[in-house]
Design goal:
With 129 residues, this protein is mainly beta. The chain has no helices and ten strands. It has a single domain, classed as Immunoglobulin-like (Sandwich), CATH 2.60.40.10. The N terminus is likely disordered.
């Protein structure tokens, strides 16, 4: 199956400030969006804790697909672990399981109604502050 996905966009969302975004490989594009952030108090009374998330978006496939799988790795080039247990129909995904001071590498793959998965999209990189 030919590559169906052309690009993957990553936005880091962190409270209170959005820090660096790393470049990404190939034709994937990166954009930042700091409009959504959250802060919560921990149970120890020690003040606010910062939560982070990475928002992904990609252009829809030009072919007929049932959905998309989203994958993440902590190493460039993989191996990648599926973040979605089954194909999602949205062309956006928010990874709320990221940890501060880590770098994550994301790819997506389109899935046909017959369950055939495309090759991975270009890799996008997110550096969590």
């Amino acid at each position: 199956m030919n590559r169906i996905l052309r690009s993957l966009t990553v936005a880091l969302i962190a409270a209170p400030l959005l820090l660096g975004l790393a470049g990404c490989g190939g034709a994937a594009s990166l954009a930042s969006n700091s409009s959504s952030s959250s802060s919560s108090s921990n149970n120890n009374g020690g003040g606010a804790t910062t939560t982070h998330s990475v928002s992904l978006s990609w252009a829809p496939s030009t072919s007929s697909v049932a959905g998309y799988m989203v994958f993440r790795s902590t190493k460039s080039g993989g191996p990648y672990k599926a973040l979605t247990s089954s194909p999602i129909t949205n062309t956006t995904y928010t990874d709320k399981t990221v940890q501060a001071k880590n770098t994550y590498y994301y790819v997506t793959a389109a899935v046909t109604s017959g369950g055939v998965q495309s090759a991975y999209s270009n890799q996008a990189t997110a550096v969590v502050p």
